[in-house]
Design goal:
Bound molecules: 2-(butylsulfanyl)adenosine
CATH topology of the largest domain: D-amino Acid Aminotransferase, Chain A, domain 1
CATH class of the largest domain: Alpha Beta
Number of helices: 24
Helix content: 25-40%
Low-confidence stretches: none
Number of domains: 6
Shape: globular
CATH superfamily of the largest domain: DNA ligase/mRNA capping enzyme
Largest sheet: 7 strands, antiparallel
Radius of gyration: 30 Å
Length: 664
């Protein structure tokens, strides 16, 4: 079957249009359409490719969502060796570099281009006739690994240049700090090993064999280097950056031309104090002789160019005495070693504790109780113990062994999956797990039961009043009074009132409160809206779950595993018997849509279907998925479906998105 001309044309148009929006969003940070509109174009493109696979082009934006699973990476020789840079750490060293440059180039002065040194992973990318052809890691500098499929998922790297030329560029792929923190939190919750810093996280991600997984981690890029720039008529590094920008690359705009070495030092000073405002990690500046003619005169050694140098920022690392390692038990039973050390000031805050993450981490770094340790903030945020200062050891230091039993309940410990690094308390009724689950349950974003702090909850557990979260609803005057000291009439009444009140929370608060792994506030909201009751959620299948926008396979599996546990079923029954609301509460809001039934067809530019439904309800209306004779208004978005014809047939009031939002 040959592809109809009009489909071919539409496909080319979509490809170009999507990449243009991509460029506007990721490179220029200046989008002109909503995420929904973008998704719609993308879906159309995918549908065409599904129907006509022969159309699928190497520069299709669909490459950005991954899809290939490799067995390994091929080794490929670099066209020109990928060198590294010499480092300097202070003003004297940079002055010496400057003197060498002047002497070797036989000049009185040279201009430098100062750039930020991005702490990521360097890549070489080749384009043939404007199309991305090959992307390589640095490897040993002479031979790199072919990571083309993974690099194509990095949204800011053009699949097609704005000029149809052959060119090789080099630059840095990095992980934004926010993404780094997000991934580590997720990994720690899952009991996986964590990444020490954004650079390791980037390297680990680019080495994944499944490009779909790479696409999920939001890597980004800055390109700063052209091989054989004279082929494009370029005379300086500054011109090269401008040219790279014109080709469609993301170029770091925090560069400055320095006309003397003092301006270089000023640039370094400025960013040394401002770098924490960046959304990425920069570990110094790179100082480059601006003119390519002079660069050529200076040449390079086997290791590094003589025309450039890295001027590193002052590392914010400090030494602290590791006084004690405590074992913390989380709500899922994961036992985390936590270092407590003498207080130090790091990047503006006082730090005295840091997670040691897991026992593999402790062992690999040989961290011992009593050691002096080096502490820094990973990504400028999370305090991290880097390792011990071994020279300062006295022999009194204590090796930190994983506990043989739960430090709180004495229960059995072990791993639940062999690939996990985490050790967990396996006792389902461990009081510490219970305490952490209760803290979550009563918190403001969950059941919002005020007056139950950690201390009081612990007393209740110790007194045997609470054995699972549902027992909260079986407390009474007598039980609370038995706690004794400090718990008087007023407090008791307040607690019981608060607990009674919390029976009427919305379904999403309850879902959030149950502590389902991988399910946070937003997911809880989506689940509540979608399933409308705990029963429906408990009966949901894997495919029901992944169908919901924003719920991935991991989360779907976590939800199914959670509700398949007998203890969980028992707790839900107990909550139900106590009168805790298990359904979606449609708080009847008063508003201009009172008593009106609203239906939608096509997609809206302002919001998703789910958000629209909530919007309608917030204005007093009722949202329905299906159009019936009772429907009062059909709101029509882009690409409407069959509901439109049906509405015309029924004589339903039809409104465009604009009309609807102007009125309501
Ligand atoms: S220029 C011939 N510019 O730092 C080497 N490198 O320690 C030319 N890096 O391997 C490199 N930001 O991965 C250059 N603005 C920048 C950079 C940068 C980060 C990395 C690069 C290089 C490493 C050297």
């Amino acid at each position: 079957m040959s592809v109809p001309e009009n489909v071919k044309k539409r496909y080319e148009q979509l490809k170009a249009e999507i990449e243009e929006h991509n460029y506007r969003y990721y490179v220029l940070a200046d989008p002109i359409i909503s995420d929904q509109e973008y998704d719609k174009l993308f879906r159309e493109l995918l549908e065409i490719e599904k129907k006509y696979p022969e159309l699928k082009a190497p520069d299709s934006p669909s490459q950005r969502i991954g899809g290939t699973v490799l067995e390994g990476f091929n080794k490929v020789a670099h066209s020109v060796p990928m060198l590294s840079l010499d480092n300097t750490y202070n003003e004297e060293e940079i002055m010496e570099f400057h003197k060498r440059v002047l002497k070797n180039s036989n000049r009185n002065n040279v201009d430098y281009l100062c750039e930020l040194k991005i702490d990521g992973v360097s890549v070489a990318i080749r384009y043939v006739n404007g199309l991305l052809d090959l992307a390589l890691t640095r490897g040993d500098g002479l031979i790199g690994e072919d990571i083309t499929e993974n690099v194509k998922t990095v949204a800011s790297i053009p699949l097609k240049l704005r000029k149809n030329i052959d060119i090789e560029v080099r630059g840095e792929i990095y992980m934004p700090i926010k993404e780094f923190v997000r991934i580590n939190v997720e990994r720690e919750e899952k009991g996986l090993s964590i990444f020490a810093n954004p650079r390791n996280a980037t390297a680990g991600t680019l080495k994944l064999l499944d490009s779909t997984e790479v696409a999920k981690r939001k890597l980004n890029s800055f390109i700063y280097y052209i091989i054989f720039p004279e082929n494009y008529g370029l005379k300086t590094q500054e011109e090269a950056l401008t040219f790279l920008k014109e080709l469609g690359f993301r170029v770091n705009l925090n560069y400055k031309k320095a006309e003397n070495i003092n301006e270089v030092i000023d640039f370094w000073k400025k960013w040394n104090s401002m770098r924490r405002e960046l959304e990425y990690e920069a570990d110094g500046i790179v100082v480059k002789v601006n003119e390519f003619d002079i660069q050529r005169i200076l040449g390079e050694t086997v290791r590094s160019p003589r025309w450039a140098i890295a001027f590193k920022f002052q590392a914010e690392q400090k030494e602290a005495k590791l006084v004690k390692v405590k074992f913390q038990v989380g709500s899922t039973g994961i036992i985390t070693p936590v270092a407590e050390f003498s207080p130090i000031r790091l990047e503006g805050t006082i730090v005295k504790r840091a997670s040691l993450h897991n026992f593999d981490y402790v062992k690999e770094r040989d961290i011992r109780e009593g050691d002096y340790v080096i502490v820094e903030k990973a990504g400028g945020i999370i305090p991290q113990v880097i390792g011990p200062v071994k020279e300062k050891r006295t022999g009194e230091e204590k090796i930190i062994e994983p506990p043989k039993e739960c430090p709180v309940c004495g229960g059995k410990v072990g791993k639940i999956k062999s690939e996990e690094v985490a050790i967990r308390c396996l006792n389902p009724s461990c009081p510490e797990k219970l305490l952490r689950s209760l803290e979550n349950f009563v918190s403001r974003e969950c059941m919002n039961i005020q007056g139950l702090g950690e201390k009081l909850l612990k007393r209740m557990i110790d007194a045997g009043l609470i054995k699972d979260i549902a027992d909260l609803y079986y407390l009474n005057d007598e039980k609370l009074r038995s706690l004794g000291k400090g718990i008087g009439d007023k407090i008791i009444q307040n607690i019981l009132n608060q607990i009674e009140d919390s029976k009427n929370r919305d379904l999403y608060s309850l879902i959030n409160a149950l502590g389902i792994p991988n399910v946070g506030a937003k997911t809880a909201k989506d689940l509540a809206y979608h399933f409308k009751s705990i029963e429906n959620l408990m009966n949901a299948s894997f495919s029901d779950l992944v169908e919901i926008e924003g719920i991935g396979e991991d989360t779907a599996r976590a939800i199914i595993n959670f509700f398949s546990q007998e203890e969980v079923k028992k707790i839900i029954d107990k909550l139900k018997d106590a009168g805790v609301n298990m359904g979606y509460i449609q708080v009847k809001k008063e508003g201009p849509l009172n008593g009106k039934i609203i239906c939608q067809t096509g997609s809206l530019s302002r919001m998703t279907r789910q958000e629209f439904a909530e919007y309608v309800e917030s204005k007093g209306g009722t949202f329905t998925e299906t159009l019936t004779k009772k429907t009062d208004i059909l709101v029509v978005g882009e690409n409407p479906g069959s509901k439109l014809a049906k509405a015309q047939q029924y004589g339903t009031l039809i409104m465009t998105e604009e009309e609807f939002f102007n009125k309501y």
